[in-house]
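Task card 7
Instruction: Convert sequence to structure tokens.
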Amino acid sequence: MTRADGGERGPAMRVGHGYDAHPFAGGDPSGRTLVLGGVRFPGERPLVGHSDADVVAHAVIDAMLSAAGLGDIGTQFPDSDERWRDADSIEMLRQVSALLAENGWLLANADCTVICDRPMIAPHRDQMQHRLSSAAGGPVTVCGKRTEGLGNANGIVAHAVALLTARGGQQSAQLASGEQPSVLDEGGSER
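Output:
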């Protein structure tokens, strides 16, 4: 196996995938506003959720937690806990970034695909990416995809992937279990 730094121990990298979906609010949305990637969309149909129902931020949170082996959004911010009712998901993302740092991980990058027919994502992409990246502690990119009539008109779905690196670039980060991540030697055997 080729290592990027050519040293005895290569940089630790971990990849995680995140997914989130929320239905649109029916009837009276009780003053809720649609929030995607930390950006408010007044006049658009809001989503139902315990927090602010930001599917974009939630998918990124899940991808980051998954990569670090630290559970998922429900583990860290359970909907049974009233502290998280109507919570700002960008603040939740900041807390996840801090948790990862405490465990020796840094976000190298994350990418999120938002699947919806409305609202259009492209006009708001730069603002979403700025808000997400600032909170996550690393670059987060966003793209929108329409369902082209094949998808669910009852809500919005988001998928995200995150790449984490060990702080300091070396295999020093710990998994949630407290174990050191495995390192493979040149022959692909664990050492």
